[in-house]
Amino acid sequence: MSPPSLIDAHPNLTDAAPVALSYELFPPRSAAAAETLWTTIRELETTAPDYVSVTYGASGSNRDTAVELIHRLLLETTLRPIAHLTCVGNTPQELAGIIGELLDIGARGILALRGDQPKDGGQPAEGSLRYAQDLIELIRRVEQRRSALLCAGKIAVGVAAYPTRHPESPSEEHDIEVLLAKQRSGADFAITQVFFDAEQYVSLLTRARRAGVTIPIIPGVMPLTSLRRVTRLGELAGVEPSPDLLERLAAADNDIERLRIGVRATVDLANAALDAGAPGIHLYTFNEHQSALEVLDKLALPRHQRAASRHSVAARPQLAS
Fold first, then answer.
1. 24 is catalytic
2. Rounded to two decimals, what is the model's pTM?
């Protein structure tokens, strides 16, 4: 009989992990937008998130500004950025160059996405990658060639997951098969697209685990404080938001009341996902910090302690419960 494991002899090693916290940011489109973004960045930095993701436009339309933002985050903040990267319309050679550039500036995480198909209905350039799975495999190949530069470490590779059927997918079962294929190709974690009902996340988690998906599936949560944004994203995702929430947002007398209603709904949604076993929360900020911080204040996440930010924490008003 094998001797007892030393790990088994120390039950504290198996304590529940702290809940992960992350935000999504997108590169600014103007000088005014950049000023607003950096105000948001400084505010979010005070919460010591585990990482922030930086979006990447369709076919790399804002590649330069995205890379510049990641570089500045690494140089000027305590934040840990991961870079979105889409593959549609790009050849393996082009993508390998972009991955190398991201690694050269210090990025150690990539969210590997397929990206949108050409809006004009045309075909992607010949030789371009077609699926996120292909991009994951390419990232791992670049990583292997740079193993000495990375001190034999790994790039953290994330992927998208869909609580409801992808608009181009034949079924939810097919979505799970795709997620499993991404895991087999080397994905480390998944972040979900927006959802409005916690049961959609619970269903995704149940179906994924039954199929053999073992990577963390982190719920992507949008602060439900803007009627226009909630309605628009519901249309894009093909999922109708709660009619009751839409009615309450529409009937709110002012922005403060609308913020309070939306924050409460978002906190309820996030808590339900956490109760179902979510390993963390990824907040889609839309480069605005107030709603995200109000949600975070009321979530009371069990977080690990990181070193304090090098920047001072500005006081901000709190919403009444």
1. yes
2. 0.88
